Amino acid sequence: MASLSFSPFIIRSHNNPCHLNFKSLSNLFFPSTPISTRPTNSPIKSSPQLRTNSVSESSVSSPSNEPSLADSGDVYDDDPAAELSFLDPEVDPESISEWELDFCSRPILDTRGKKIWELVVCDRSLSLQFTKYFPNNVINSITLRDALVSISETLGVPMPEKIRFFRHVITLYAAASSLQLGIKPVPSKRCLALLLWLEERFETVYIRHPGFQKGSKPLLALDSPFPMELPENLYGEKWAFVQLPFSAVQEEVSSLQSRFAFGAGIDLDLLGIEIDKKALIPGLAVASSRAKPLAAWMNGLELCSIEADIDKACLVVSVGISTRYVYATYKRTLATTQEAETWEAAKKSCGGLHFLAIQENLDSDDCVGFWFLLDLPPPPV
Q1: In this entry, which stretches build a coiled coil (predicted)?
Q2: 324: how many CB neighbours lie within 10 A of its CB?
Q3: Most CB within 10 Å of its CB: which of 10, 209, 352, 356?
Q4: What is the pLDDT of residues 320-332, one digit of tens each?
């Protein structure tokens, strides 16, 4: 594998293609005091076919002169009022063990002039896709629980082991309904397929809906709190801005299981995101004499993204839904400022892709933790 190098991002060759080489960078250190970029548009892989259901006029406004789906045998793939219930016939239902869920109001009014709510559920590859509209007067954990059961029964898929959701304000509904069904709720912004799908649905479904309210703000806004001081067990000892070609990142992610390393990957092919294998992906290398415990603790945090805060001369790590930590600080100089700016620019140029690597020291031959990350903007709904 190609070795990692510093800014200005120059990839150096290494004799052993399976080794990673890290080196420390002067004047950069972990914090002693506390203190996003939008990716390029990438199309979501569309379903080969969708089984749609008609939407009740009592909850969602529809033009009276258009025929309902119940009156037609055709499949209305582009009907903005249609609800989706789809399972890829080529996928084994038993292989889908995790769902991604959003349950929120939409900028669409029903016949009563009230915002409708929508349940959107998918898996990480969008092999499972389900949407259902609800009037705002039936929103509770029981409604959500029953809807989750209906997904399993309608599509013939087993209940998942985990359900991820990215909105803090629906934690009560999502957690309660999941636990009642024996499912582990996971608050996490690593709902990448769901976030990209919601962005696509805004452009292709919501704004075309007859009840769409232009300029309407989301009822349930996403939190972006001030970053807190890093917990002691997450401290590293040295770190450096680094980079790898995309092909090397893929190789590192694919070897996680065989090496029993901590971390997580992103299957960009499943998400319909294309990137050149030679494209350089920026990352952060962290060294610690307690690398394995550090990687284990980090692995339980649902790591979302890392951001270089130029104004505060620090790195901010986002985990879970709305938790942000000052991950590292550095002495503000012209050189360090330019390096941080270059790193953020590199992240933006490849659509928000970046990574975190943890190892025992920056000269080690391999890492004990590797996370491939995608910094996505909040969904427009």
Answers
A1: none
A2: 19
A3: 356
A4: 998 999 999 999 9
